[in-house]
Amino acid sequence: MSNHLHLLVRIKDKDCQSSEDWQSSPTRPTSRAFATLFSTYTKALNKAYQRTGSLFERPFRRKRVDSDRYFTYLVVYIHRNPQKHGLVDDFHDWPYSPYRAMLSDKVSHIRRLDVLGWFDGRASFEAAHVALLDEGVIEPLITNDRL
Protein backbone atom coordinates (compact mmCIF):
# COMPACT_ATOMS: atom_id res chain seq x y z
CA MET A 1 0.00 0.00 0.00
CA SER A 2 1.12 3.53 -0.48
CA ASN A 3 0.24 4.64 3.04
CA HIS A 4 -0.13 1.53 5.19
CA LEU A 5 0.62 -2.14 5.46
CA HIS A 6 -0.91 -5.15 7.11
CA LEU A 7 1.07 -7.91 8.77
CA LEU A 8 -0.34 -11.10 10.18
CA VAL A 9 2.29 -12.45 12.52
CA ARG A 10 2.18 -15.46 14.79
CA ILE A 11 3.81 -14.63 18.10
CA LYS A 12 5.05 -17.33 20.42
CA ASP A 13 5.29 -15.84 23.88
CA LYS A 14 5.47 -18.26 26.77
CA ASP A 15 4.81 -15.45 29.27
CA CYS A 16 1.49 -14.37 27.77
CA GLN A 17 -0.93 -17.27 27.94
CA SER A 18 -4.20 -15.37 27.81
CA SER A 19 -5.64 -12.28 26.17
CA GLU A 20 -5.56 -10.49 29.52
CA ASP A 21 -1.85 -11.32 29.97
CA TRP A 22 -1.05 -10.06 26.49
CA GLN A 23 -2.88 -6.77 26.90
CA SER A 24 -1.46 -5.99 30.34
CA SER A 25 2.10 -7.22 29.75
CA PRO A 26 4.36 -4.40 30.99
CA THR A 27 7.28 -5.36 28.78
CA ARG A 28 5.39 -6.13 25.59
CA PRO A 29 8.36 -7.76 23.85
CA THR A 30 6.38 -7.82 20.61
CA SER A 31 6.06 -4.03 20.64
CA ARG A 32 9.79 -3.66 21.15
CA ALA A 33 10.54 -6.08 18.32
CA PHE A 34 8.33 -4.18 15.89
CA ALA A 35 9.69 -0.82 17.05
CA THR A 36 13.18 -2.12 16.29
CA LEU A 37 12.06 -3.45 12.89
CA PHE A 38 10.44 -0.15 11.89
CA SER A 39 13.36 1.88 13.19
CA THR A 40 15.91 -0.23 11.32
CA TYR A 41 13.83 -0.08 8.13
CA THR A 42 13.54 3.71 8.45
CA LYS A 43 17.29 4.11 8.96
CA ALA A 44 18.06 1.92 5.94
CA LEU A 45 15.70 3.84 3.66
CA ASN A 46 16.92 7.18 4.95
CA LYS A 47 20.49 6.15 4.20
CA ALA A 48 19.66 4.72 0.77
CA TYR A 49 17.69 7.79 -0.31
CA GLN A 50 19.76 10.38 1.56
CA ARG A 51 16.82 11.55 3.58
CA THR A 52 16.07 12.15 7.26
CA GLY A 53 13.09 11.80 9.52
CA SER A 54 10.37 9.33 10.22
CA LEU A 55 8.65 7.18 7.62
CA PHE A 56 5.66 6.40 9.79
CA GLU A 57 3.10 8.97 10.90
CA ARG A 58 2.03 7.22 14.08
CA PRO A 59 2.78 4.08 16.03
CA PHE A 60 1.63 0.81 14.58
CA ARG A 61 -1.62 -0.70 15.73
CA ARG A 62 -2.04 -4.29 16.69
CA LYS A 63 -4.97 -6.55 17.34
CA ARG A 64 -4.88 -10.00 18.85
CA VAL A 65 -6.44 -12.59 16.56
CA ASP A 66 -8.49 -14.48 19.08
CA SER A 67 -11.03 -16.39 17.02
CA ASP A 68 -11.08 -18.71 14.03
CA ARG A 69 -13.58 -16.47 12.28
CA TYR A 70 -11.42 -13.39 12.71
CA PHE A 71 -8.32 -15.22 11.44
CA THR A 72 -10.11 -16.42 8.31
CA TYR A 73 -11.56 -12.99 7.52
CA LEU A 74 -8.26 -11.29 8.26
CA VAL A 75 -6.28 -13.44 5.82
CA VAL A 76 -8.78 -12.70 3.04
CA TYR A 77 -9.01 -9.01 4.00
CA ILE A 78 -5.24 -8.55 3.85
CA HIS A 79 -4.97 -10.23 0.45
CA ARG A 80 -7.85 -8.22 -1.01
CA ASN A 81 -6.77 -4.88 0.50
CA PRO A 82 -4.89 -3.54 -2.57
CA GLN A 83 -8.06 -3.93 -4.63
CA LYS A 84 -10.16 -2.29 -1.91
CA HIS A 85 -7.92 0.77 -2.05
CA GLY A 86 -7.95 0.94 -5.86
CA LEU A 87 -4.31 0.07 -6.40
CA VAL A 88 -5.28 -2.76 -8.75
CA ASP A 89 -8.53 -3.82 -10.39
CA ASP A 90 -8.03 -7.39 -9.21
CA PHE A 91 -6.17 -8.32 -6.02
CA HIS A 92 -4.62 -11.29 -7.83
CA ASP A 93 -2.52 -8.78 -9.78
CA TRP A 94 -0.90 -7.10 -6.75
CA PRO A 95 2.77 -8.09 -7.10
CA TYR A 96 3.59 -7.78 -3.39
CA SER A 97 0.80 -9.95 -2.08
CA PRO A 98 1.45 -13.09 -0.08
CA TYR A 99 -1.58 -14.52 -1.87
CA ARG A 100 0.66 -15.46 -4.79
CA ALA A 101 3.16 -17.10 -2.47
CA MET A 102 0.38 -19.12 -0.87
CA LEU A 103 -0.46 -20.70 -4.22
CA SER A 104 3.09 -21.04 -5.46
CA ASP A 105 5.37 -24.05 -5.20
CA LYS A 106 8.43 -21.83 -4.70
CA VAL A 107 10.34 -21.93 -1.44
CA SER A 108 9.04 -19.35 1.01
CA HIS A 109 9.22 -18.42 4.68
CA ILE A 110 5.43 -18.21 4.71
CA ARG A 111 3.81 -21.08 6.60
CA ARG A 112 1.94 -22.05 3.45
CA LEU A 113 0.77 -25.49 4.54
CA ASP A 114 -0.47 -24.16 7.87
CA VAL A 115 -2.58 -21.46 6.23
CA LEU A 116 -3.88 -23.67 3.43
CA GLY A 117 -4.71 -26.28 6.05
CA TRP A 118 -6.68 -23.67 7.97
CA PHE A 119 -8.85 -23.23 4.88
CA ASP A 120 -9.05 -27.02 4.33
CA GLY A 121 -6.87 -26.87 1.23
CA ARG A 122 -5.99 -24.80 -1.76
CA ALA A 123 -9.43 -24.93 -3.44
CA SER A 124 -11.20 -23.64 -0.31
CA PHE A 125 -8.52 -20.98 0.17
CA GLU A 126 -9.10 -19.70 -3.37
CA ALA A 127 -12.89 -19.91 -2.98
CA ALA A 128 -12.78 -17.84 0.21
CA HIS A 129 -10.97 -15.09 -1.68
CA VAL A 130 -13.46 -15.10 -4.55
CA ALA A 131 -16.52 -14.98 -2.28
CA LEU A 132 -17.74 -11.54 -1.41
CA LEU A 133 -16.08 -10.38 1.77
CA ASP A 134 -18.62 -8.88 4.14
CA GLU A 135 -16.52 -6.02 5.48
CA GLY A 136 -19.23 -5.31 8.01
CA VAL A 137 -18.09 -8.46 9.79
CA ILE A 138 -14.42 -7.55 9.96
CA GLU A 139 -14.65 -3.75 10.26
CA PRO A 140 -15.32 -3.75 14.03
CA LEU A 141 -12.36 -6.06 14.43
CA ILE A 142 -9.88 -3.86 12.56
CA THR A 143 -10.95 -0.37 13.63
CA ASN A 144 -10.16 1.25 16.94
CA ASP A 145 -7.66 -1.50 17.66
CA ARG A 146 -4.88 0.46 19.31
CA LEU A 147 -3.71 -1.24 22.43
Provide key terms for this protein.
single chain, 147 residues, mainly alpha, 7 helices, 50% helix, globular
Question: Can you offer a commentary on this structure?
Answer:
The chain is mainly alpha-helical and 147 residues long. It has a domain at 68-142. Helices cover 50% and strands 0% of the residues. It has helices spanning 19-24, 29-48, 68-84, 98-103, 112-118, 122-130, 135-142. Helix 3 crosses helix 7. It starts with 18 loop residues before the first helix and ends in a 5-residue tail after the last helix. 6% of the residues are buried.
Helix content: 40-55%
- Low-pLDDT stretches are none
What is the H/E order? HHHHHHH
Number of H/I helices: 7
Radius of gyration from the CA trace?
A: 17 Å
What best-fitting shape do the alpha-carbon axes yield?
globular
How large is the share of residues in beta strands?
under 5%
State the end-to-end CA separation: 23 Å
Helices and strands: which structural class? mainly alpha
- The average pLDDT is 78
Give a brief description:
This protein is mostly helical and 147 residues long. The chain contains seven helices and no strands. α3 (68-84) packs across α7.
